[in-house]
Amino acid sequence: MQHKKTSLAATTYRASLPMAALALAAAAVSTDSLAANDYATKCGGCHGADPKGAGAPFSFKGKKDASATKAAISTQPMMASLATLTDAELNAIALEMGGQADIGAPTATPTPAPTATPAPSATPTPSAPPAPSATPAPTATPVPKATPAPTASPTPTASPSPTPSTAASASCDGASAKAKPIMFPIGEQNATVGQTLSFTVSALDCNDVPILIKASRLKGGSLLSEGQDFDTSGAWSGQYQFTPSSSQANQSFLVRFSAKQTADSHKASKPWKVRIRVFPAGSGYEEGAITGVKVQSARWSDGALLVSGRVDFSHALNASDRKAYSEGAQITLIGAGDSQLGTFPLQPSGKWNAKVDSLSDSTVPCEVSAQLNGREGSRSVKKAPETCLK
Questions:
Q1: Would the pTM count as exceeding 0.85?
Q2: Rounded to 5 degrees, what are φ and ψ at 48?
Q3: Rounded-to-integer distance, Cα 370 and Cα 356, Å
Q4: Residues 249-292: pLDDT tens digits?
Q5: What whole-number percentage of the chain has pLDDT above 90?
Q6: Which helix (H) or strand (E) holds 260?
Q7: Whose C-alpha in 107, 254, 269, 303 is 20 to 30 A from the C-alpha of 168?
Q8: Based on the number of CB atoms within 10 Å of its own CB, is 311 exposed (0-12), middle (13-18) or buried (19 or more)?
Q9: What pairing do the DSSP bridges indicate for beta strands 272-279 and 189-192?
């Protein structure tokens, strides 16, 4: 069925049915439980028991050849679980469907015949020929360890994309008029003031009808209406764009996306929530995650330099973000003449503590500073001796 492109107030993409059916059937059936990789186990869930298409809930639209199925598997993320099918299995399924087995069988690599072992010379007591000594495997060259940089700047943990349980567990098998659209998962996003963030929003309808994707209101954000249509994966997709202003810096926003059938607005998907962090102009997650480093206390006591302070996190980060950021983060303590006194771990609360006991009255600095990812704070050392280094 040929679909015409529809201009909508929000962006839509129409599903290419055969690709969607194959993708969702593959995602819905665990390969661990299959007895054989044939049409019944891999395709029957969405295309019916008859591989020729008679009585199936969805037509193949002529895409039955083995090469067409293999191309769809390699290009569509939703069909990734079918990548283990061999060319022979794809050819067999294509023949069941009435298509062409047009994938050539790989040329078998000839196995060299083993060298015959000569029979030992007959002797009164023949000795068994000794087994040839195994050639030792070459010793692997060890990979050199990377030399750590003096300042251990943490690499922020990327925000994990939500587990695609909603879309991956959905199946169009036995879909009825009551079936509702399904939103595809979208991970958390990071935005920078003055720069446009753009990402794809997709949804699927098992009834093969046009759907409309909507987004909740956010200043500077919009779901583009131009170019909204179905794509080759069988999903309706559009582009969401967001250009934050300076007033939105160091904040996070929650945008809700949902899809509904254009012919029946009551058939709507469950909303998918996407969290967007906004950082100041010129900074991303790593630079904008913290807004300052402070030294709250520094004193010389009983031959040891005791320093403590805290890091101010951006309000765009939540508790999980702060915990992820602090893992591996190190505060660098600097003394007189920019000498490094050591590195000390950052706690998820933002606090840090340092103790340096390798100094003397003549080497203790009069002032110390703490650094992390371009942020710095300093303080004079209380009770420092008159001979302290400036």
A1: no
A2: 90, 165
A3: 13
A4: 999 999 999 988 877 777 888 899 999 999 999 999 988 999 99
A5: 41
A6: strand 251-261
A7: 254
A8: buried
A9: parallel
Write out pLDDT tens, residues 194-227.
999 999 998 888 777 788 888 999 999 998 755 5
Task: Please choose, from the candidates 180, 188, 181, the residue with its C-alpha nearest in 3D space to the C-alpha of residue 163.
Answer: 188
Write out pLDDT tens, residues 328-350. 999 999 999 999 999 999 999 99
Residue with tokens 């300042």: 151
Residue 55: the pLDDT is 45
In angstroms, the CA 185 to CA 301 distance is 55
Cα–Cα distance for residue pair 177/194, rounded to 1 Å: 45
Q: Using CA atoms, how far apart are residues 34 and 40, in angstroms rounded to an integer?
A: 10
Q: Please, which pLDDT band fits residue 29 given cuts at 50, 70 and 90? A: very low
Looking at residue 275, its pLDDT comes to: 97
H/E stretch holding 27 reads helix 17-28
Q: Is the pLDDT of residue 351 over 90?
A: yes
| 167-183: b (≥16 Cβ within 10 Å) or e | bbebbbbebeeebbbbb
Residue 386 DSSP class: T
Distance CA 136, CA 172 (A): 56
Rounded to the nearest 5°, which phi and psi values hold at 284?
Answer: -110, -155
Structure tokens at 220: 């500077």
Distance CA 93, CA 151 (A): 58
In this structure, what token pair is assigned to residue 70? 């293999």
Question: What structural domains does the chain harbor?
Answer: 17-96 (no CATH), 175-284 (2.60.40.10), 289-380 (2.60.40.10)
Q: What is the mean pLDDT of residues 295-322?
A: 96
Long-range contacts of range 279-283, CB-CB < 8 Å, 24 or more positions apart?
279/190, 279/191, 279/192, 279/193, 279/249, 279/250, 279/314, 279/316, 280/192, 280/193, 280/246, 280/249, 280/250, 281/192, 281/193, 281/194, 281/195, 281/246, 281/249, 282/192, 283/192
- Cα distance between residue 219 and residue 39, in whole Å: 49
Amino acid at 278: V
